[in-house]
Amino acid sequence: MSAINPERRKFLGKTSAVFAGLVIAPGVLLYDFAHGRAAGEAASGRVRWGMLVDTGQCASDCNDCVSACNKENGLSGGTSATDSQWIRKVELKDLRSGRTTSLPVMCQHCEHPPCADVCPTGASFRRADGIVLVDKHRCIGCRYCMMACPYKARSFVHEPLTDQNPDVPRGKGTVESCTLCVHRVDRGEQPACVEACAKAGRRAILFGDIADPESEISKRIRAVASAQIRADLMLNPGIRYEGM
Fold it and tell me: Rounded to whole angstroms, how far apart are CA atoms 232 and 88?
């Protein structure tokens, strides 16, 4: 387990001032500047945010969702072992038919997240509305959560960060992953990847409340055959894939 380095102490000192007075716990907002919510107001357990990805509309040569994620969250866009990747495009091939399928893979926002189970400090947690997050103040960089994640969806920040999006606090020596753009969701907006996909005319990603039977995403899930990645693990991910 690595010790906290001077750069990380500097990050924690700066962000502590920004988030002074904020109590972070499962079900409580990590980003309290969200419009329409009082600071510290709990996320509702009556909601579960999720996505349905139509792989039939996801083209192998399109990376708009990845680019939008990188821009929104201040990621470098690099793909080396030391670069953070919150979404990556994956190509699947059916060996019997030869058919290939392209799909984005990110944190699957499990109902039973193994990353939270193994975290020794409680830094990895699931909000009441189903969004899985990392509390940067509690993360000690042990990376147990990275080993526990069956989707390989988490990254470790190796280098100092500059010019960050103030809506998306990040820090050297901590683990991070897709947040479903929680800062946008809490303002009533769509995640950046969903918005970018729609602007490109593909509309391959549908975002919404999968706990609401009357929501568009719930109706779609009932109407089409969809699958979860590694459903056999019984983690009940919030991300579903149509045509996979």
Answer: 22
